[in-house]
């Protein structure tokens, strides 16, 4: 029997406690994301929220996590710096996957692991219409495992517009490109590699629309989790003190 993929879902869990978001996600945004994995025996899900001790992301939890899925928005600045650094460690050194949904790209761990910083107003174009805008998330890398089971595009009836230019690092792979009803476009599914870890930026998911219930979004999340989980065959060489071995492979007596 294959080992289960251990998915931890982090949700800020602030806006979904009150209206208008509570009516859309009455059990929390994390519950809608978790539905992507219900009924699939190859996944095991843990929930973490910002109001938990260590934000629910203790060393024990992170050490057991294969893929971390993240949703946050208004409380990014209040996130603990030590926990953010711990997340980066597990991505870079252990190969933990990290999926950032929608405004999670402004979170501390995402920006730290990519080596960037930007405020929402300086990052790129965005537009929030009261009734949202139609979005078509086009598959532009159809051979990529994240796109498996997805047709030519995912149609989202209403979302907040994220548009180009996005002042983001050049992705290692771009998987999705979104078109918006107002005429904008956006690189909406981007893959980055950092150390042993894979990162995936997926822009859909504004909190006032029921996007995170869509079956196609759930398919993308399952695909991404399967592909991003670190292989049990990955070798992480260390010495007892946690450092890579610095012993010479050739004789260096002449350098003494």
Automatic annotation (TrEMBL):
A Pfam family: ThuA
Domain ThuA-like: 7-227
Name recorded for this polypeptide: ThuA domain-containing protein
Species per Swiss-Prot/TrEMBL record: Cohnella nanjingensis
């Amino acid at each position: 029997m294959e080992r289960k993929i251990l998915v931890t879902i982090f949700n800020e869990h602030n806006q979904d406690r009150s209206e208008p978001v509570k009516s859309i996600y009455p059990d929390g945004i994390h519950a809608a994301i978790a539905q992507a994995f219900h009924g699939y025996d190859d996944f095991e899900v843990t929930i973490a929220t910002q109001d938990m001790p260590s934000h629910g992301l203790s060393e024990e939890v992170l050490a057991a996590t294969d893929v971390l899925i993240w949703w946050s928005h208004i409380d990014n600045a209040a996130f603990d710096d030590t926990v953010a650094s711990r997340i980066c460690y597990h991505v870079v050194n252990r190969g933990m996957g990290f999926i950032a949904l929608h405004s999670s790209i402004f979170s501390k761990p995402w920006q730290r692991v990519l080596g960037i910083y930007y405020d929402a107003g300086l990052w790129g174009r965005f537009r929030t219409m009261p009734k949202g805008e139609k979005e078509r998330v086009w598959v532009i890398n159809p051979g990529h495992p994240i796109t498996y089971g997805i047709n030519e595009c995912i149609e989202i009836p209403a979302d907040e517009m994220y548009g180009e230019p996005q002042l983001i690092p050049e992705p290692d792979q771009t998987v999705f490109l979104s078109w918006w009803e107002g005429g904008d476009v956006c690189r909406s599914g981007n893959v980055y590699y950092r150390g042993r870890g894979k990162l995936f930026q997926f822009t859909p998911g504004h909190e006032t629309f029921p996007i995170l219930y869509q079956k196609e979004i759930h398919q993308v999340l399952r695909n991404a989790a399967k592909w991003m989980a670190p292989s049990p065959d990955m070798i992480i060489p260390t010495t007892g003190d946690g450092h890579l071995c610095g012993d010479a492979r050739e004789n260096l007596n002449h350098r003494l």
